[in-house]
């Protein structure tokens, strides 16, 4: 069996220490914490044309989910471009233009769209995303859910989702700067307050 591709440690260091004008920002937090609003604020502050990358798959029969999506849409400036990208997130990031700011909301829904992949295929998919982020010329703001602070999910699919998203966020936290945690009505800059794990 062929081993999945790896990202070199030098690639991670290069991205973090880059002196270019591009930014890779991770905004994470629990449900209803305000993480999307903070990410939108950061996108507006970038001063660049914003491309909102929505990763959710829209189910026309799910009225509650449609209502959530509409709330997000009403909050965004009308001049922002919106792309529906439930699967090909890496390609979208790879094709981004340097003068733009991509706001990806959210990683959790993107991860959920790949739960049918086995572990080897998922590793390839996630590494591809990380490599595209390392080489993206545009600003990228990623919104991610914190799912591991509650009880252990009762079903295997829930545990798979939690573990995959948690691992992806940890790997992203090693290359993003800054990393924000939004919780309890406050925004915390983890890049200033915390210390990266040694193996990151």
From TrEMBL:
Gene (name only): cobU
Extract the GO molecular function terms from the UniProt entry: adenosylcobinamide kinase activity; cobinamide phosphate guanylyltransferase activity
What pathway annotation does it carry?
Cofactor biosynthesis; adenosylcobalamin biosynthesis; adenosylcobalamin from cob(II)yrinate a,c-diamide: step 5/7; Cofactor biosynthesis; adenosylcobalamin biosynthesis; adenosylcobalamin from cob(II)yrinate a,c-diamide: step 6/7
Q: What is its EC number?
A: 2.7.1.156, 2.7.7.62
Q: Which domain of life is it from?
A: Bacteria
Q: Does the keyword Kinase apply?
A: yes
> Which EC class, in a word?
transferase
Is Zinc one of the keywords? no
Q: What is this protein called?
A: Adenosylcobinamide kinase
What does this chain do?
Catalyzes ATP-dependent phosphorylation of adenosylcobinamide and addition of GMP to adenosylcobinamide phosphate.
**Catalysed reactions, as listed in the record:** adenosylcob(III)inamide phosphate + GTP + H(+) = adenosylcob(III)inamide-GDP + diphosphate; adenosylcob(III)inamide + GTP = adenosylcob(III)inamide phosphate + GDP + H(+); adenosylcob(III)inamide + ATP = adenosylcob(III)inamide phosphate + ADP + H(+)
Q: Which Pfam families match?
A: CobU
**What are the protein's UniProt keywords?**
ATP-binding, Cobalamin biosynthesis, GTP-binding, Kinase, Nucleotide-binding, Nucleotidyltransferase, Transferase
TM region(s), chain numbering: none
InterPro entries, A to Z? CobU/CobP (IPR003203), P-loop_NTPase (IPR027417)
* Family, per entry: Belongs to the CobU/CobP family.
